[in-house]
Design a protein that fits this description.
5 strands; globular; 5-stranded mixed beta sheet; Cytidine Deaminase, domain 2; 5 helices; 130 residues; alpha+beta
């Protein structure tokens, strides 16, 4: 599956986002190591702290369907390129510390990062055991 295929899936998910408070809709497409794609969109809540980002929706959907190893993630928030928030970066690192993160605009501009670039020195199980 190409990055442009993932962009189409993330855009489709973004259209389903529930963002009545911010008006900022985000879509994500997460690929597991077997090539299966899980999409997600952000879901806001009147109690802002209960809002869940598109990336975490995709991760929880994947986990609930039995997948725990991921290779790529593409996110889009519209015409501007966005990166995952800190909470999403940490959740992604739990399952895929070497994840390729593709940040894309709706027009197809893309910037690729390694998750380790976006979350240097992230918290891990190794640190809990020290």
């Amino acid at each position: 599956m190409t990055d442009f295929d993932l962009l189409g899936l993330a855009q489709e998910a973004r259209r389903r986002a529930y963002a009545p408070y911010s008006g900022f809709k985000v879509g994500a497409a997460l690929v597991d190591t077997r090539g299966k794609v899980f999409t997600g969109c952000n879901v806001e809540n009147a109690s802002y702290g209960l809002t869940i980002c598109a990336e975490r929706v995709a991760v929880t959907k994947a986990i609930s369907e039995g997948s725990q190893q991921f290779s790529r993630l593409l996110i889009t928030g519209g015409e501007e390129i966005i990166t995952p928030c800190g909470a999403c970066r940490q959740v992604l690192a739990e399952f895929a510390p070497h994840l390729v993160v593709i940040c894309a605009s709706d027009s197809g501009m893309m910037i690729q990062y390694d998750l380790e670039e976006l979350l240097p020195q992230g918290f891990s199980l190794r640190q809990r055991e020290d």
